[in-house]
Design brief:
By secondary structure, this protein is α+β, with helices and mostly antiparallel strands. Helix content is 32%, strand content 19%.
């Protein structure tokens, strides 16, 4: 997770069924939930993959590539991270992130860099 405190940062974790072994799970295990050890994190279980379907339906194609696994059979948004600057309004459509990447294990370092950029931009905006 993140190494430092980011004032106002919120972390939303969405768990869902994707792989065949996932489909046997009714809820994430305690050990899975403890992988996210940041006090700012709130975790949810999306048994029906509703958020994934919404992302697939509403995000632009270029953004979708950075959050979804696509093949000839299906497109599933999963194992991804998305960053939104402070104050971003979530309206009628799923908001386009300021940055997104997947899989999380490969995207984590870039996510940290982009988070720093977003935080610096927000600090500059508030200083004006």
């Amino acid at each position: 997770m993140l190494d430092r405190d980011s004032t106002g940062l919120r972390v939303i974790v969405m768990w869902e069924h994707v792989t065949p072994s996932d489909r046997k799970i009714t809820l994430p295990s305690t050990s899975a939930l403890f992988r996210i050890h940041d006090a700012r994190a709130v975790q949810f279980w999306d048994d029906e993959r509703a958020i994934s379907r919404l992302m697939v339906a509403e995000l632009p194609a270029d953004t979708l590539k950075s959050v979804a696994e696509m093949d000839s059979v299906s497109t599933v948004a999963w194992d991804c991270v998305a960053l939104y600057r402070a104050g971003r309004k979530w309206g009628e459509r799923f908001p386009v992130p300021d940055w997104s990447g997947r899989p999380i294990a490969d995207a984590i370092e870039t996510m940290r860099e982009r988070l720093g950029e977003i935080e610096r931009a927000a600090a500059a905006d508030s200083a004006r």
